[in-house]
Amino acid sequence: MFYKDLDLAKIRKEFDLDFAHYTFPKGMCSCCYGPKDMSKKYWKNNTIPEDNNYTYILFSNCENGSGVVHENDEIKSLQFILWSFPIEKMSDVCKALLLQLNRNYVILVPSKYTHVIILMENDKERIEKELKDDAYTLLRYEDAIMDTESRNELWASLNNLADCYTADMIAHSNGLVNSENNTTEIAREIRDAAISILEKYGAYYAPIEK
Length: 210
Hints:
Blueprint: H1 8-14, E1 19-21, E2 56-59, E3 78-84, H2 90-98, E4 105-110, E5 117-121, H3 124-130, E6 136-140, H4 141-145, H5 148-173, H6 185-201
Parallel strand pairs: 1-2
Antiparallel strand pairs: 2-3, 3-5, 4-5, 4-6
């Protein structure tokens, strides 16, 4: 994916942030510059505030980091995101950002104001290394796209499907299957349950487009 695929303005509007952008301009470092040094087009209402009381997310692509980026550049495999907004919004902001990506990425969500948001490729070893800091929790794409109620419903459906499969295997082993058509009522229930799950949740786990 590329930086141009991100719609940070949408996130800015949805969570009432003042500023959002994916890079510092050329020649700027994160220690000397900030959002107020950037174009007003990345600000709410195209207005740069006079005071320093503003909210933002800003990808730490800068001269003193891994370098500035452009819209046609691929999103980096490890991306630090500077932020300033009420931490109560953190989970929802991170979910919204991850949903603009795909299952190749995860976000490490900070629970402290002193920690940056970490966007990274779904690499097990690197994730485990970063999670040694207990200030972070892991957010996967599947977690972002499904709320708790939906995940619990899916889990219940899968358990029911497993029970049906087990019962059908027992029926086979006990010779209770009609040998003429090799079909049982339980088998039909399994089929119907599988179709129902795919229709409702299949889009969440569709293959990733290359």
